[in-house]
Amino acid sequence: MVSIFKKLGPGLLFAGAAIGVSHLVQSTRAGADFGYGLIWALLLVNIVKYPFFQFGPRYAMATGESLLEGYKRLGKGVLAAYYILNLGTMFTIQAAVTAVTAGIAARLLGIDASMWVSVIVALFCFAVLWRGRYGWLDKSMKIIVLVLSISTLVAVLFALGQNTDVPILQRLPENTLEWTFLIAFMGWMPGPMDISVWHSVWAIEKKKINPSTSLKSSLFDFNIGYLVTLVLGLFFIVLGATVMYGTGVSFSPNGASFAGQLIGLYTSLMGSGWFVVIALAALTTMVSTTLTTLDASPRVMAHTSKLLRLPILQKQQSWLVILTLGTCLIFVFLATEMGLLVKIATILSFITAPFYAALNLRLVTSKHIPLKYQPKKWLQVASVLGILFLLGFSCVYLSVIF
Q1: What CA–CA distance (Å, rounded) separates 89 from 104?
Q2: Distance separating alpha carbons of residues 5 and 221, to the nearest angstrom
Q3: By C-alpha distance, which of 273, 274, 239, 272 is closest to 162?
Q4: Burial of 133 (0-12, 13-18, 19+ CB in 10 A)
Q5: pTM of the full predicted structure?
Q6: C-alpha atoms less than 13 angstroms from C-alpha of 374 in its C-beta half-sphere
Q7: In a domain, 239, yes or no
């Protein structure tokens, strides 16, 4: 068991990056508004997106290079497009997840949430990554995901007996507002598609630490992380359904405020003694996301700068400073515009999902990939169908928001 645990790494980092606002807010809200009625949507979107996330570690193990090198093989324009898209969204995404983390931390400590709490959280995560880098992140994420899983499971087990009137029947949305939520829910689950790029980079880093890492062990690691992501998504739906469904409470659209409502409702039903359990589950959810995104974006931006042979900003630590500073500046000067910034980042993430999916499929089926490393035919067919689904999904999303 210990040897297996040591082999895990990038898959749990994937889980840490994916399990964030999408789970704590979106999955919980799905349970709060629909009971268990959207479990079908959670399962469907995880099945559809599975191949494209899996292609990240598959490509890395087959070639010894990340998807970034693969994008360059398809043309510098493709890699430059990735660079620009990532540059346009990484500050907003980092600010959003950090703000939710800060809000939960403030609730747990019993202090008022403010922009300065968010700044402190950002600087704390910066300090952790500046000192520890990948090796520390690899080890610490195993502990974080373990704590997250146990605390969430405990919360779910005790919540299940609290509300027996939750509808189990699966259902479709009935109005525009509900359809809008469903689209956002499925769009963010289990996470943005560009996490596949991060995963491929983490897989290379893991290979450097443990040269014996193979395609089989890397895919096993990924599958564990993906399964954790799916199961915790189900857990948060159960939490929302059992604790929040049918309460008549008007839920806040703000992520940190919504998490506070979840903690408050849970403790009012279960007793103040359970406050720490649910707060710990919520906090570890967001800490994992904040750390992994703060590690991944600088890592891929530095590597992309090298591949594009840009004369500056080729070091990961330089981008770590820039991302942390930019995040803090958003809190100080653009806090009132956070809603608009997040909306822009969300739109870009949605409409680029088919783009990343198609690129990943093309790379893992390229001539420079040995046949033994390429996905089976059934997985390739499933990928094509998935791309068509994502294209249609993006079109529906754009038609709804505009």
Answers
A1: 23
A2: 9
A3: 239
A4: middle
A5: 0.85
A6: 17
A7: yes
Structure-token pair, residue 119: 């700044």
Cis peptide before 354 (omega within 30 of 0): no
CATH classification at residue 84: 1.20.1740.10
Question: Is position 2 within any domain?
Answer: no
Answer yes or no: is 61 within a domain. yes
Cα gap 147→79, rounded to integer Å: 37
Whether residue 4 is contained in a domain is answered as no
List the pLDDT tens digit at each of the 402 positions of the chain.
Answer: 445 555 667 777 887 777 777 777 788 888 888 988 899 999 999 999 999 999 999 999 999 899 999 999 999 999 999 999 888 888 888 888 888 888 888 877 777 767 788 898 899 889 888 765 666 666 666 777 777 777 777 777 777 766 667 778 888 888 878 887 888 788 778 888 888 998 898 888 888 887 877 888 888 989 998 998 899 889 889 888 887 777 776 667 666 676 677 777 667 666 666 677 777 777 777 887 888 888 889 989 999 999 998 887 888 889 999 999 999 998 888 767 666 676 677 777 778 888 899 999 999 999 888 888 999 999 999 999 999 998 888 888 777 766
Q: Sign of the C-alpha dihedral, residues 48, 255, 336, 124? A: negative
Q: How many H-runs (helices) and E-runs (strands) does the chain carry? A: 16, 0
